[in-house]
Write a structure and sequence with these properties.
Layout lengths: L11 E7 L2 E6 L4 E5 L4 H4 L3 H4 L3 E3 L4 E4 L4 E4 H5 L12
Antiparallel strand pairs: 1-2, 2-3, 4-5, 5-6
Length: 89
């Protein structure tokens, strides 16, 4: 007996920024948030540039044009971030 492997292809319906947190809503209704500090370019971005997130590639990626930064939705869902989570002092 074999178990079928299900390929996930998560897609974003909308993305927004609150403070220094980026949030996405997926087509299945889940909402995921992560700190900008988990990605090098986002960590150093101004609040104004960070807020200019766009959904692109038919919901498969996030784009910050002014920062020349692209992040895949699949990577976010799988927890693949560039930087570790900062520890509270």
């Amino acid at each position: 007996m074999s178990t079928p492997i299900v390929e996930l292809d998560p897609r974003v319906v909308q993305a927004w920024v609150t403070g220094r947190m980026i949030f996405i809503e997926l087509t299945d209704g889940r909402q995921i948030g992560f700190p900008a500090a988990r990605f090098r370019l986002l960590a150093s971005a101004s609040d104004t540039d960070l807020a200019k997130v766009e959904v692109c590639l038919n919901g498969a990626a996030l784009r910050w044009e002014a920062l020349d930064e692209d992040i895949t939705v699949r990577g976010i869902v799988e927890g693949r971030f560039q930087l570790p989570l900062a520890m509270a002092a």
